[in-house]
Amino acid sequence: MNKPKMALEKGVPSSSRVLMLLGQLERMNGEAMLSESEVSRQITSKILHLIQTQEKTRKELTTKGSGGMEVILATLENARDLQTILNILCILNELLSVGGGRRIGVCVSKGGTAVLLQLLISSSKETPPNEELMLNVHSLLAKIGPKDRKFGVKARLTGALNVTVNLLKQNVHNNKLLLPCLQVLRVYSANSVNAVSLGKNGVVELMFKVIGPYSKKNTSLMKVALDTLGALLKSKMNARRAVERAQVATLLSIYQDWHRNDTRHRHTLIRKSILGCLKNVTNSKLGRKAFIEADGMRILYNTSTCLPVRTLDSLVSTSSLIMRKCFPKNRLPLPTIKSVYLHALPHVPAGGPVAQLYNQPPGVDDVVDESDDNEDMELETENDTENEEDDKDKAENDDFETDIAKLRPRQGQTRPFDELRVYERFFLELSEDFQEFDLTDSKAGVGVTPAPPLPKPPKPILVPSGQAPPKPPQEAAPKPPRGETGEPLELESIGLKCAPEKLLQGESLRPVPPAQPLQGGGTATPRGLEPLEPLEPLELELSSSLSRLGLEGGGGVEDGGGEQGVLEVPDTAALLPLHDPELYIQVAKSTRSVPSYTEVAYPDYCGHLAPGSPEPILERVYGVQRTKIFQDIERLIHPGDILDKVVYDLDLQSCPVIDDGESLKFNSQFESGNLRKAVQVRKYEYDLILNSDINSNHYHQWFYFEVSSMRVGTPYRFNIINCEKANSQFNYGMQVLMYSVQEAISGRPQWGRTGQDICYYKNHFSRSSIAAGGQKGKSYYTMTFTVTFQYKEDVCYFAYHYPYTFSTLKMHLQKLQEKCADGVYLREDVLCETLGGNPCPLLTITAMPDSANTTHINQLRSRPVVFLTGRVHPGETNASWVMKGTLEFLTGSSPLAQSLRACFLFKVIPMLNPDGVINGNHRCSLSGEDLNRQWQHPIPDLHPTIYHAKGLLQYLNAIQRAPLVFCDYHGHSRKKNVFMYGCSVKETVWQTNINAPSCELHEDLGYRTLPKLLSQLAPAFSMSSCSFVVERSKEATARVVVWRELGVQRSYTMESTLCGCDQGKYKGLQIGTRELEEMGAQLCVALLRLHRLTSPLELHTHSHTHTHMLEVENELIETQRCSVTTSPTTYVLAEDEPVLEEVDYSAESDTDHDLQDPAEPLSDSELNDKDPLS
Question: Residue 888 CB: number of other CB atoms within 10 A?
């Protein structure tokens, strides 16, 4: 160590005694230290006395630039006199005992670690070593070790590790020396290599000699020993050594003893340390097996359920974590996790997901426990405990595109123009001369001019498989509805009758009991179509047959009176102008499904009337998740209490029907329905399993099913046990949707938020790494909720979000054509036919020309194009409700709508994935693929809607009419509010470490204008949640492909929350269909303002446009400055898999970016009056 030089810092008096003494020590270092040991003893003794009696002396020694620490360490390094060494060690102990980590950091930076370790090595060579010296050295090492990142490596390389271990073995019963040795050993063990080395030297067994049953003595020693043992057991080798010596049972016994005797909870830290040892030892498969064999589940369950005190949450949470980890992994109670239904494809790409799925060997779903030491990392980071916000994701996002060449939009014609000419048929308005239209008639432009669909793909063939051939599609469909007799019922025979008078009077209706089948061969009255009679006020009963309407089946002959069956429905025509039950039945007949559905769900038939106001976000009940987890653990501890009765199963040819009055009845065999299996586990608790997307073995999130035969006033718990995402808004106040048929018939046909004790957590069901696509330990998650039904014999429907079926879309489009405003040019074409044989509608909306003269027709043809798409992911039903709001606005009669139609030509594909919507998929089409990942290279016969939608855009680009705006409507499952994703080279570069010249980052900031306008107009929209980065994993999405390949600067994905809002007018409220439709309308208003900002006339005549763009630039720069501290997720959110939001369980963010609520939404006329650009 270099000889230090004392420096007298300005402000420190030169007459200070301690500085004079340090100066003397400095001069003695070296040869003089050996010859003048008595003098050094006296000097160090005086310094120690001053430090012990004067606080200012300590400050003088550790003041920056004083050099006091260097002199002391140099003296310690050169000293050979024992008393001098002890004095210096005492000086260091005094200095480092106070002052926090700063003084320790100074000591480490001056080389204190190396000096002390060298002293430890040299002192250990004496026989026997001085106990006081060893005590002081280890005390100091225990203090500075945690502050030195390389402490473990230094200790191992110098040999200090073995010195401490040998000293520990020789002083097991010497508590005075044992404690500091254990403290240092705890720091040593933090290094994984050291932990393995210590385990080989028998330190694990030594720790079990130190720890023991409950005792009021030496609790500090017990705590340090347990912490050391916990650090050692992080090593897989040490954990195996402990298991082989049956020490898991020892730990459980010790924990029980401390739990039993620590009645006043004064030693919870010791109990937590014991649990820490158990948590580490059970990271391995052998450890979990030993834990189960030692009855660890029952022990921890019994010791946790009796801890109601909130201050003991750390014990309960750790116990819960251990039990969940050790709960044996099981496969789902299904014959296979592949979808129940199979749809044969025209061809199967060799490397595609369908080929991989059906080439998997039999039994691939089996779960094999192959976990290792790192498995617990995921368990520790998931949302297991209450009152903890999700950890901030501070890691750099490696998904950002860093190649400038790839970031730059590159326009190129990927298909020959002669091939693109086929799309001319969808742009009749660009060639129409309107001579045949009577433009003096305001309704002249209303109607449908369907174009013939594009060529249909080749007829399907069966999917090749490496195993037994799958069943043909017609065999995969389930049988007709259970319990129905007679010939199929013709849809035309359904009669509808409304009773507005009764509804206004609040009188309920009930069906007459259906006629029973005649033994002589007669038939019964059709189910659900019986005449209705008034219901007594106290007898609110409803036959479950009313819940579904047959598309074909369950019919019979007319009754004796010769009258057809009549179904009473509420008269809501005035409130639901786009809904018509009779029309819905008619359009549903032409909807083709893989299971060949024969039923219609009552909510889709009767319609949904939005509630008057949004419902509040549910406040999370403290401890609800832990309670649910413990109830799941009870299944393993008390298996005799579990019924395990299957009450619904699509895998069976005929789903079981149990009429014992003790079980609920389930059904999901209707359009968009999804429920595969229901198992009654307790009297009022059911495990529910969702069906995979067709031709897939995953994507479980969307659900839509029917429940009947319930008891009034009884809480029922429902557990959906095969969810896949790691977190959900169900943990942040979102509730499920329920539709009551009783309430609908009483005049309240609406979906409402419901459910209590809602939470979302990892369960013990899993699948093999092969079935999980190579992801080892792929676990499922449980979404649980409790519902208490209000009506006797009601029929209720549950859904993930507000359902919106393909038949609903067809009905709405037909009603829009009938009701659209005057002067609207509305044309509906069939873009193509889907794999399932369903049409994909394409809408053209604009304003009719004022006349047939050339000027007016050219004005129509020159209008900028706005291209809107939606519902590429079937489970994101909120996208369809936003689209509904957009379409209603575009075809409406408001002045703003008229202006908007005169400004733009709208091309709208409201549903890109009709097949997925119809068949109850969550994310995929019938090809088993996410269509929003196929935009780069869509295959026409596997992804027809994407192929032809892209073809439309390519055609527009080829004729120099690329859209001004492209927007794809989506829903987001993990974030609140409505927001947009866009594309920007500059903002992507700013989030990476790319060194790019400023000239390469030049781009027009117009992509931010539309989101900014929306943040000013729409109360649900959040600008702070928007992101404009381009990620590698999203390069095949619509947003990125349209931006990159077609050069559309304003290419967006608009994400709508499935939960609610945490800012603005709707803060703390769950989103409903009214708010979603409002969002669709507000997008139209924003587009109108965008036109006024970007039109050539405005750009030339209004200087404020340039000012506006400067404001956007300034806002962008300011946002970038603030993003690091206030919005870490603003620019790193993935489009479909975002980081977890930073909100507490009440879903009220403490770091809102918008300090003021947006203005109240205005009417069309008010917006027109207040628009400064009008």
Answer: 20
